[in-house]
Specification:
Strand order of the largest sheet: 6-7-8-3-9-10
Structural class: alpha+beta
Radius of gyration: 24 Å
Number of strands: 21
Shape: elongated
Distance between the termini: 38 Å
Strand content: 25-35%
CATH architecture of the largest domain: 3-Layer(aba) Sandwich
Order of helices and strands: EEEHEEEHHHEHEHEEHHEEEEEEEEEHEE
Length: 355
């Protein structure tokens, strides 16, 4: 039996969420999806802040679908620490065990502050803490209540670029040491790879893709997974040794799918060469595109086509080719650089490489 078993269906206005999500003990699942896909709705349903129209929720064998939030044994770490401003860090962490009337609440709070490397901040109030320090205390507070399920709602989103890596490493260490399941909502592929065993991709209130984190983010089958991983994705129908795209172009690649399936071709922008003219006779894939924009990316320039595909080339190559938006060019990629995979459907459509 899974540690968490849930199935929710809820309609609010024109939006319907219909999701089944199960977790094993100690499993960490990252939930990804575009804005409006239903991530916050799912978290609110799990936390008891929203009631489903139908469905079920069991956690550790307990039926929680009708339970109030404080009865569920679910901890939440949000984007903002939300610490009680009038309490010290120690008192904030102690709040949960004290509310549960557990013996040794102070010792529990001190232990968790030490566990998240925040023991030195025990006597400080939230206004005396940096963003990273406050988020560590918030994590200790969530864990000190000994929840059966931990929800992390973009916990690194509000941290600056220097604090986020340390907090990410801390979360990984703490989550790996726990037997409780956890769900992490994030827009960052690195969070999913570092923290999660499994990735679930939501779109328009449905799960459109799920699987082991590394597999989903290196072999995506949905547009959002490709976008968050920084890859090109083209939808179509699988053929022998490749894909017949929805736009009518046959793309050769390393296929893992049987012919005739809904499929996607996936390749990195760094694998794309750019030509002003069609390189006839080449064994590579050649896609005619219209440039929509160019933007610097470190030592490279990302070319974005009107159809969404992208190529990363050097500034010298941009100058040599005399490239500018509005031109028709050829994006060329070797078949060995293209992965072709079966897809769950056509809802992922399109070809959207993004950051």
């Amino acid at each position: 039996m899974s540690a968490l078993s849930s199935r929710f269906r809820v309609t609010r206005g024109a939006f319907t969420l219909d999701v089944q999500l199960d977790l094993e003990a100690g499993e960490v699942v990252a939930v990804l999806g575009p804005n409006g896909s239903g991530k916050s709705t799912l978290m609110n349903l799990l936390a008891g802040l929203l009631r489903p129209d139908s469905g079920h929720l069991t956690l550790g064998g307990r039926d929680l679908v009708d339970a109030q939030p404080h009865q569920r044994g679910i901890g939440l770490l949000a984007q903002e620490p939300l610490l009680f401003p009038h309490l010290t860090a120690l008192a904030n962490v102690e709040f949960g065990p004290r509310a549960q009337r557990r013996a040794g609440s102070r010792e529990t709070a001190l232990r968790w502050l030490a566990e998240v490397d925040a023991a030195e901040f025990a006597d400080r109030r939230p206004r005396q803490l940096s963003g990273g320090q406050a988020q560590r205390v918030a994590l200790a507070r969530a864990l000190a209540a000994e929840p059966d399920l931990l929800l992390l709602d973009e916990p690194l989103n509000a941290l600056d670029i220097d604090a986020a890596p340390a907090m990410r490493g801390l979360l990984r260490r703490v989550l790996r040491a726990q037997s409780r399941p956890a769900i992490v909502v994030t827009h960052d592929a690195l969070d999913a790879l570092v923290l999660a065993d499994r990735v679930v991709v939501l779109d328009a209130g449905r799960i459109v893709e799920q699987g082991p984190s590394r597999e989903v983010l290196t072999r995506p089958r949905s547009a959002f997974a490709a976008r968050i991983a920084g890859l090109n994705l083209i939808a179509g129908t699988t053929v022998e040794g490749g894909l017949h795209s929805d736009s009518g172009v046959v793309i050769a690649g390393r296929s893992t799918a049987a012919p005739g399936e809904n499929g996607v071709a996936v390749f990195s922008p760094s694998a794309v060469a750019v030509h002003r003219d069609n390189p006839h006779g080449s064994p590579r894939n050649a896609l005619r595109v219209r440039l929509a924009g160019m933007e610097p990316r470190g030592d490279l320039v990302r070319l974005r086509a009107a159809d969404g595909t992208a190529a990363d080339i050097t500034p010298a190559a941009v100058a040599e080719l005399g490239l500018e938006p509005g031109q028709d060019v050829w994006f060329v990629v070797k078949a060995t650089e293209v992965g072709v995979h079966a897809a769950l459907g056509r809802s992922q459509g399109g070809s959207w490489p993004r950051d």
